[in-house]
Amino acid sequence: MRTFILMVIDFFYRPFAKLMPLQTFRYLACGGGNTALDIFLYWVSYRFLLDEKIVYHLLFIPVSAHIAALFMSLAVTFPTGFFLSKYIVFTESNLRGRVQLVRYFLLVSICICLNYGFMKLFVEQFHIYPTIAKILTTLFVVSFSYLTQKKFTFRAEASAK
Asked: What pTM did the predictor assign?
């Protein structure tokens, strides 16, 4: 599967070769695909599974459908995002897999907080339709995520000589 994904992504890289490094293109392709999956799963969860209503009360706090849908889509896109990043995008990292996974979890946790904050702001304060708010939120979070993955989660440490 890895070989097939790399073959497809690298085939489409040629026109972009002068604009960006291969790793950046692979990140955009994998991240874009995972983000599209996330937005689609969010929309299905919000619109059809949760029926756009308050889901339940957690510790006496109502959980809105637009927030519950974030976690539902995350259940699928967390593992797919990690594996795409580890085996397709940041393959030169020599960090142990569990270190990468812990760091990825920390990054995703921060991104969840950013997503939560932006969604609350856009939907409840600015009254933007939740799916549009999710797209806007994603634009902010993706830049932060790429830089963090490259410089922290999957960084390649210099070998000791």
From this structure: 0.78
Q: CA 143 from chain center: how many Å?
A: 10
Determine the average pLDDT of the residues in 36-54: 88
Task: Report DSSP state, residue 127.
Answer: -
SS3 151: helix
Taking the C-alpha atoms of residue 124 and residue 118, their distance in angstroms, rounded to an integer, is 10
Q: What are phi and psi of 58, to 5 degrees?
A: -105, 115
Q: How far apart are alpha carbons 159 and 92 in whole angstroms?
A: 12
- How many angstroms separate the CA atoms of 26 and 39, rounded? 19
The answer to whether the beta carbons of residues 124 and 94 sit under 8 Å apart is: no
Within 10 A of 159 (CB to CB), how many other CB atoms are there? 6
Q: Quick one: pLDDT at residue 161?
A: 44
DSSP-assigned letter for residue 152? I
